[in-house]
Design brief:
Pfam families: Gly_transf_sug
Radius of gyration: 23 Å
CATH class: Alpha Beta
Keywords: Membrane, Transmembrane, Transmembrane helix
CATH architecture: Alpha-Beta Complex
Largest sheet: 8 strands, mixed
Strand content: 5-15%
Number of domains: 1
Protein name: Initiation-specific alpha-1,6-mannosyltransferase
Shape: globular
Distance between the termini: 61 Å
Oligomer: single chain
CATH topology: Spore Coat Polysaccharide Biosynthesis Protein SpsA, Chain A
GO cellular component, one term: mannan polymerase complex
GO molecular function, one term: alpha-1,6-mannosyltransferase activity
Amino acid sequence: MLAYQRLRAAKHSNTTALVAVFISSLLAYTLWELTDVQTLRKNSFKWHHTDNPIPHTIWYKLGPQGLSEDASGWVDGCLSKNPTWKAQYMMDQNADEWVASSFSDRPDIVRSFRNLTTPILKADFLRYLLLYREGGMWFDLDVECGETPIDDWIPTAWKANTSLVVGWEFDAGLPNDVSHQLESWTIMSRPGSPYMLQAINDITQAIHDEAGEHSVPISELKLHMLPNVIDFTGPARLTRSVFKALEQTLGTDVDRRLVQGILEPTQLGDVLFMPGWAFSATQGQYPEEDRDKIGSRLVIHHYAGSWKNEHGGERI
């Protein structure tokens, strides 16, 4: 009888210990989540204005298989046409390390980025992080430079007060009551941009929201759980974030029609909007009467679409 009581007491003690460990782990996870959310809210509209010029750096993200022959040719072509610009490459490991170091004051960002496992989500997120902290130009690997030098993209009169250059993807030929969308394969930015920070904060919040909605850690978020990539981290997200931040910086509602259906670069605040022909010439059609007014395309996007698979990107 005594032996039975001891055995039962031991089992009870083990069970109590396991429950205690579980509760402690759950509490730690909850506190971590709360800390992240509190950090996010504290920094939601916090940015650091800078008058620094746009650095002459083109950022690229390499997958596990590195540069393809085509991509290598496009990169070399861009650099030969723009000798004052240099290329910088990020791969998965050094991207994680760079984010951890560069955003150590934002544990919500670091945790969200490092725990994502879908390549395209991380690549989208990374471009905004790089441009916010470092500035320069983001190119997807399937972007080829046109004949116009990058230094000539911004009209001289606007160079001093342009902090962001974005281009329309879906704009030409669309009525104003249809959704117009910016592209995200070519973005130019000064460091410290409020527009890139808005995209960062919006994505970080969305990651937390989706993980909570599905009751999974960020590392277990999968593509099929999300609305769609374009809306979650891609061009649609960029479009919303840019206009949201514009309203914050200008202190007023912004009528998007001011920069829609444009035939030449148009500035709103310190954002330069490029017409569809500049970065996305193959999307949309200009009316016959406008075709002699458009310029030569600044980049050629080859639509490699390496992210369009079940993994959301390239794997070894």
